[in-house]
Amino acid sequence: MESFLFRIDSLAKEFQKRYLFKLETAYKKNKLIFPGKIAASGSQKVIGAMIHNLSVTKWIAYAKQPFAGPEQVLEYLGRYTHRVAISNNRLVAIDDGQVTFTYRDRASNNEKKVMSLESDEFIRRFLLHVLPKGFMKIRYYGFLSNIKKKQCIILIRQLIEPMSEQPDLVTETLQQIMQRITGIDITCCPQCQKRKMIKIRALPKPVWNTS
Ligand SMILES: [Zn+2]
After folding, report:
1. How far is the CA of 196 from the centre of ligand 1 (A)?
2. Rounded to whole angstroms, how far apart are CA atoms 187 and 179?
């Protein structure tokens, strides 16, 4: 605890002060947009009350040491540099100011579904994924593009050195992946950190009453 850079309650107060100041400034400059269902939330009265409530509430800043040092944090965040908000093939139609796209419903067995949104709302949601200034996204293309790289790399290897053997794919167990990314040994007892946990048996699968 004593090795933190700042006192955690000072950090929370400072964060609260700056956040609310920026929020209020943005509102006064008409930079906040209240589309669709939240249009009523944009009145002076509602915003004023909300900012007041937020300023009298005690904020908590959650900060802790990275699991296994800064390298693992970088690696974890690094994964986000490769994602895009939505890929072109998920866009189904653009008509009448509406954008229709496919998505996976996590609440319903990852089923593929279709959704339509007003174009303003679609753009608003899309822009939430735009990284802040100074952050970069990385996209591979050509022979390294995700869909093609598996076949392309095999082909390239054959063209460069026809007699060469394919290197063995590195396959990691879940335990090894967790260890590498978070530095946590998931077989270790989380309570005492000393003993190994042993699998005794698997819990039976729940049986749903479908009648
Ligand atoms: Zn233990």
Report:
1. 8
2. 10
Instruction: Compute CA distances 159 → 104, 150, 163, 164, whole Å.
Output: 39, 15, 9, 10
For the stretch 5-51, pLDDT in tens is: 678 888 899 999 999 999 999 999 999 888 888 888 888 899 999 99
pLDDT (mean) for 73-96: 76
How far, in Å, is the centroid of ligand 1 from the Cα of 73? Answer: 27
Question: What's the rounded Cα separation, in Å, for the pair 91 and 110?
Answer: 18
Measured in Å, residue 190 CA sits from the centre of ligand 1 at 7
Q: Which residue do the tokens 């899309």 mark? A: 126
Identify whether the C-beta of residue 47 lies closer than 8 Å to the C-beta of residue 100. no
In the reported structure, the alpha carbon of residue 163 is separated from the centroid of ligand 1 by a whole-number distance in angstroms of 52
Q: 188 C-alpha to center of ligand 1: Å?
A: 8
Cα-Cα-Cα-Cα torsion 33, 36, 40, 46, nearest 10 degrees, comes to -40
CA nearest neighbour of 146 among 82, 88, 70: 82
Q: How far is the CA of 175 from the centre of ligand 1 (A)?
A: 18
User: Alpha carbon of 125 to those of 15, 35, 135: distances in Å?
Assistant: 25, 11, 19
